[in-house]
């Protein structure tokens, strides 16, 4: 069974605040997949998630487009991946990508649709650009018995 809901945010600050609330609820081993076109707010949401995980406000959260991964320390480690420039899945294997899933922290993956094999046990978030300031954030998990079911109820 798929559990899903969506919210709309009316500013970058509101998108970050939603991310902050989500980040505060995430547990060790969480895998969060962010999808959406350029400018949809993935990195903005990622910044909020980082703040919710207790990562210092003074540390800029940037999309690791060229390095594929940035890591940050907070209440839990955050492993922030960006697959936009991914040439092939072998690059992920070289990074030891799977070691970060269900590990000691939270794995956050932008452009995860470029490597769809790991979507089954994850919190999937699609961001849609509605207009200059409004973003639709659709959240779903594929199994209502997963670790994300209680989180989904709290976010609703």
Explain what the structure shows.
With 156 residues, this protein is of the alpha/beta class. It contains four helices and seven strands; from the N terminus they run E-H-E-H-E-E-H-E-E-E-H. A seven-stranded mixed beta sheet has the order 1-7-6-2-5-4-3. Strand 6 (123-129) and strand 7 (135-141) form a beta hairpin.
Query: Count of DSSP E strands?
Result: 7
**Overall morphology:** globular
Number of helices: 4
Q: How many strands, what sense, and barrel or not for the largest sheet?
A: 7 strands, mixed
- Provide the spatial order of strands within the biggest beta sheet: 1-7-6-2-5-4-3
Low-confidence sequence ranges: none
Q: Ends: how far apart?
A: 17 Å
**What is the percent of helical residues?**
10-25%
Give the amount of beta strand, in percent.
25-35%
Return the structural class. alpha/beta
What is the overall pLDDT average? 86
SSE arrangement, N to C: EHEHEEHEEEH
Using the CA coordinates, give the radius of gyration. 14 Å
Summary?
By secondary structure, the chain is α/β, with parallel strands linked by helices. Helix content is 24%, strand content 26%. The model has no long low-confidence stretch (mean pLDDT 86).
List keywords for this structure.
single chain; 156 residues; alpha/beta; 7-stranded mixed beta sheet; 4 helices; 24% helix
Secondary structure layout:
Elements: E1 3-9, H1 12-25, E2 31-35, H2 42-52, E3 69-72, E4 78-82, H3 90-95, E5 106-110, E6 123-129, E7 135-141, H4 149-155
Parallel strand pairs: 2-5, 2-6, 4-5
Antiparallel strand pairs: 1-7, 3-4, 6-7
Helix pairs in contact: 1-2
């Amino acid at each position: 069974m798929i559990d899903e809901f969506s919210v709309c945010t009316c500013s970058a600050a509101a998108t970050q605040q939603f991310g902050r609330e989500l980040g505060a609820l995430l547990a060790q081993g969480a895998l969060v997949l962010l999808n959406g076109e350029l400018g949809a707010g993935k990195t903005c949401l990622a910044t909020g998630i980082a703040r919710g995980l207790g990562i210092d406000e003074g540390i800029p959260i940037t999309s690791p487009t060229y390095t594929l991964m940035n890591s940050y320390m907070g209440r839990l480690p955050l492993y922030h991946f960006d697959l936009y420039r991914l040439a092939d899945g072998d690059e992920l294997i070289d990074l030891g990508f799977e070691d970060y899933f269900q590990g000691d922290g939270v794995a956050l993956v932008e452009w995860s649709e470029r490597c769809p094999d790991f979507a089954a046990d994850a919190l999937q978030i699609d961001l849609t650009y509605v207009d200059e300031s409004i973003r639709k954030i659709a959240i779903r998990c594929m199994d209502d018995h997963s670790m994300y079911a209680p989180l989904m109820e709290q976010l609703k």
